[in-house]
Amino acid sequence: MNDVVIAYDLGTGGIKSSIVNEGGQIVCSTFVPYQTYYSANGWQEQAPEEWWQALVLSTRRLLDQGRIPLKAIRALAISGHSLGVVPMGADGSLLRCKTPIWSDMRALDEAEDFFRKTDYQEWYEVTGNGFPPACYSLFKIAWYKHHEPEMYAKVNKIIGTKDYCNYRFTGRLCTDYSYASGSGAFSLSTWSYREDYIQLAGISPEVFPEIIPSDGIVGEITQEASDETGLPMGVKVVCGGVDNSCMALGAKGIVDGRIYTSLGSSAWIALVSEHPVLDFKYKPYVFAHVIKGMYTSATCIFSAGLSQQWVRNTFCTDLLEREKSGEADAYELMNRLAETSVPGAHGILFNPSLAGGSMMEPIPQMTGAFFGLKLEHTRADILRATQEGIAMNLRMALDVLCRYQEGLEKMLIVGGGAKSSVWMQIFADIYKLPVEKTCIDQEAASLGAAALALNAIELWNGYGMIDGIHRLERMYIPRQEVRSIYDSAQERFEKLVNYIAEMNK
To answer: CA 20 to 30 Å from 64, out of 139, 231, 242, 380?
Structure first.
């Protein structure tokens, strides 16, 4: 049996665990969900112990499913959701049973206080942290200090999501450059913490963990971790990276100028480059790449697949029933209906800001909308308009990045949405770019984590193999005959966005 590694994709909704061989092919995968807790207004928390227990369960299922000889497992690495703040005591204890995740907004006051002392634009241009500031770790840690001083006084280190799991594997507290770049206190130019920002926030620099390369080896799994997971002693634990950067690696982001769209619950367009894209008006969010010296700069929308899900649950309950009866997946049935409408959805526009506006949208208080509805419109028109609206919103995000990267020739799309052929053609038409669909759709982050593990233990020499792993399944070419329809729709859509913003001020 050839050597294998295990890749973990620790996402917001659960953990996906995969066995990956030396060739970068996923042998088998399993998924275990966990819960998000909404304890107060603006709070979004998860339990680190639940991450670990989900990892343990998924690993045991994986070993049963894959029937891989234990001695073949050489290393593991984790792609983890960003901006986590897990407080650890000097004795290695977890000091808070539930901790804020990336989308938690409790630290608004702490962020506001920070920017009374320093310039917001300067901070953004140093850190590339383009999400609402309260999301970032620096301000969440300040919240701990202000609101839970007794707990904060016991803190040794505050670490991220995947770093907590690495600690449970090895007993070592550390992070990597990509995850540290979402701390709110990391300089993209020096690749190190800015102690002046940490001190301005009223925090001790000592709480921030050591930084090692993403493909650096944290250690080997302990006897305790071996007993829990079923993995053998001696398996190397590779540091891994933040999900955005792992996905960039897995989406062929290995050279300057490559770009991809991730189409999941939320959606973003990310550009991999040798220099960060910093634009204070639109605030692309930038993470250090897992390849040191490179960056992944992204613009996003919050409700892509979430909008599709809302439309499914609201307008397509009959399709859900057909899915339950075993006929076909509800989304596939929705795709078939959308395909019976026409480009431009007979004039309907959909704004997908159902979860509010991202930083590239006019205001955070954005709302969703269908515009142009008439009695003659059908459900098929609504479904197509939903897909087109998401694509047009992302086209606005693409236009921001195109100011900094000329000569884009094609767009790779990954994520669950890439499975819809009608949607991929819509993207090609609206982006005005050939859209590439490969065999890697929902596995991009897992592939990125696996690549880090394979490189760390020298089964790979660099990341050039990733291109070959992406087997092309279909290229969607922009259709000249619909260009004028979508040009007009895009212009109307952007006017609609501005109108919605004005109405919600």
So the answer is: 242
Given a contact cutoff of 8 angstroms between Cβ atoms, the answer to whether 99 and 45 are in contact is yes
Write a three-state SS string for 159-219. Answer: ECHHHHHHHHHHCCCEEEHHHHCCCCCEECCCCEECHHHHHHCCCCHHHCCEEECCCCEEE
- C-alpha–C-alpha distance, residues 191 and 214, integer Å: 13
Contact 65, 46 (CB under 8 A): no
262, part of any domain: no
Q: How far apart are alpha carbons 72 and 220 in whole angstroms?
A: 15
Q: What is the CATH number of the domain that holds 114?
A: 3.30.420.40
- Domain count for the chain, please give it: 2
Question: Per DSSP, what are the bridge partners of residue 435?
Answer: 411, 476
Q: Are residues 57 and 160 in the same domain?
A: yes
What does 81-115 look like in DSSP terms, one character per residue? Answer: -SS--EEEETTS-BS-SSEE-TT--TTHHHHHHHT
Model confidence at 1: pLDDT above 70: no
Q: Are residues 183 and 311 in the same domain?
A: no
Per-residue pLDDT of 10-43, as tens digits, reads 999 899 999 999 999 999 999 999 999 998 988 9
Q: 487 with 395: CB under 8 angstroms?
A: no
Question: Do 46 and 116 touch, CB atoms closer than 8 A?
Answer: no
Q: Residue 359 contacts by C-beta under 8 Å, 6 or more apart in sequence?
A: 130, 131, 132, 282, 283, 285, 299
- Do 373 and 488 lie in one domain? The reply is yes
Cα–Cα distance for residue pair 320/108, rounded to 1 Å: 39
pTM more than 0.70: yes
List, in order, residues 6 or more apart from 117 with CB less than 8 Å away: 200
Q: What is the pLDDT, as a whole number, of residue 74?
A: 97
Do 210 and 69 reside in the same domain of the chain? yes
Please check whether residue 300 lies inside any domain of the structure: no
Tell me: do 25 and 100 sit in the same domain. Answer: yes
Would you state the structure tokens that stand for residue 299, as one six-digit string? 């613009």
Same domain, 220 and 147: yes
Find the helix or strand (DSSP H, E) in which 395 lies.
Answer: helix 379-402
Whole-number Å distance between alpha carbons of 444 and 457: 20
Q: Is residue 406 part of a domain?
A: no
Residues 91 and 234 in one domain: yes
pLDDT on residue 272: 97
∠ CA 325-328-333, nearest 5°, is 120
Residue at token pair 């953990």: 15
Contact (Cβ atoms closer than 8 angstroms) between residue 87 and residue 96: yes
